[in-house]
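Re: weekly structure request thread

Next one in the queue (726 aa):
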Amino acid sequence: MTENINLTDALKKYFGFDTFKGNQEAIIRNLLAGNDTFVLMPTGGGKSLCYQLPSLIMDGTAIVISPLIALMKNQVDAMRNFSEEDGVAHFINSSLNKSAIDQVKSDILKGKTKLLYVAPESLTKEENVDFLRGVKISFYAVDEAHCISEWGHDFRPEYRRIRPIINEIGKAPVIALTATATPKVRMDIQKNLGMQGAQEFKSSFNRPNLYYEVRSKTNNIDRDIIKFIKSHSGKSGIIYCLSRKKVEELAEVLQANGINARAYHAGMDSTTRTANQDGFLKEDIDVIVATIAFGMGIDKPDVRFVIHYDIPKSLEGYYQETGRAGRDGGEGRCITFYSNKDLQKLEKFMQGKPVAEQEIGKQLLLETAAYAESSICRRKSLLHYFGEEYTEENCGNCDNCLNPKKQVEAQDSLCAVIEAIIAVKENFKADYIIDVLLGKETSEVLAHKHEELEVFGSGMGEEEKVWNAVIRQALIAGYLSKDVENYGLLKVTTEGHKFLKKPKSFKIVEDNDFEEEEEETPLRGGASCAVDPVLYSMLKDLRKKLSKKLDVPPYVIFQDPSLEAMATIYPVTLEELQNIPGVGAGKAKRYGQEFCVLIKKHCEENEIERPEDLRVRTVANKSKIKVSIIQAIDRKVALDDIAVSKGLEFGELLDEVEAIVYSGTKLNIDYFLEEIMDEDHLEDIYDYFKESTTDKIDDAMDELGDEYTEDEIRLVRIKFISEMAN
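Done, posted below.
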């Protein structure tokens, strides 16, 4: 009976739309005909309609298996809005009490309910299986189906039990839907759901309205984010962080800087979490800071930016999360902050998991790193990862295409790579191939006796990052491929063999350089970040003049990063000056007046509009620990005891104490120094800092020699800064 239905009329009747999008109609017809259906459709492409409309047309109740409670609530509310009958859609999950579940069952048995959303955990409960056996099921929809695959970005073991449960409840067609799936993940899903014969409907992954950018993650990331949000004032945005702690900290910092932001993560109490989600959907809140628990299937069309504070664990995750921007086809800016340290951190998190899972996790991370570091079109990289070819040379809407790098000829390098892959019998991953080319005698290379190969060391003339770029771009150009089953093993394609026989021009762009942030304490050095280099050099001159007059080294007055921030934010009062990193009230009072006068004059003469909104106000709780350290030092508690009581390593405690004295607070640690240090040592180090033009510890250690420890030098530097500067 369903074959003869006019679907366009049904679409208009139930949802008020005149036309279908993309493959929607073909997908729905396939399902109505009783066939298993596999749908690969990017976020915002209209996946939900592919099961919502057929559920209203077909006899019985459709079961939608969905991973997130927030998503179910969102979809059930939406379906009820389209229908006069509240019972048309229900969900069963852990948030419902017994009487609510009885109401759901009653509506299903009366035939009112066309759509029942269940979490996989609820579907496997025996009482639910028993109940559903007695219900006519129209079909099963498995939403966010990538959760089935260990290769997906959100592996959930309960998802792997869906097929046996379906067999227990009763057979009906299955439609599996996902917004992100590489060829490997697609195979995995279909195998696990026992739907290898399913018809596949695949939409293009290209979202032309999304702008992709990867930025280097520096110590100023909070300031960069505040500046970005303020320049997009009033627009909706999501910021993803990996940890719950960071979500809460960042939300507080944004609020302290006048941004209407809230936190969202799975550890919050559900009332607050729901209130924050609803506030965002209703536009009472501009920015949500969240873990990846937020946003799956949340249908907000006008999210204008998605920021990744930390690099995501996989490109699937990245694509899914950025896909929440610009669903209405309007502007969508996707900004990601990347640092190699984050990757190392994520790798550490994997320790303790089964080896196979660690291997998969590492491969997914490598793909993400390749995406971030590569200088080629972001769109091209992303679509290639999902098995789609993008032929445009320049997409015009990503950082790499808007700032293209010079291409260099890499014909010989590609030949060397292909020869190396063939020499090791196409049995190894990219990092191993690079080790062979660079002639590295690693334990693995020696175990395979590959140091004896002719290709060993043939690439020593180039750096590792060049070889990375050659391999990454050869994959996209189709000369190499990665084995889908043994994820990551490099193979040479037919095109690659042809290239080796008859080489032609192969141009690459070198990878982006992501400088590691320096670990100098307590602030980063260098003028590279000053927005106004002219003012920066004027401030340095003033500091030099004062240092001569007061007979103290320049860094005692203000450190370079503080001057750099002044030349960016233009503080003109002592109060504003205290918003500068490294400037506390004492320091502002003691030295600040002349600097403020100079900055004010410079702004007036050059008609500079001061970006007062860039004063990144820190949140009080960060200073709680500092206050308690100051109080303990006032009580003359030994520093190593303070470290133990605060749960800090001794070096971490010194970081905190340095930050306190560099900001202008006076501390007297003589009681501790007298206990632990030789008096001559103390005088030698103190005199060194008096004469030196730099406060760098490495320079002090070189100058003073081996008999002085790093901790001793740091402790005396604290005493020196405290007495001379504060």
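Residues 517-528 have pLDDT under 50 and may be disordered. The CA atoms of residues 28 and 553 lie 75 Å apart.
Next request, please.
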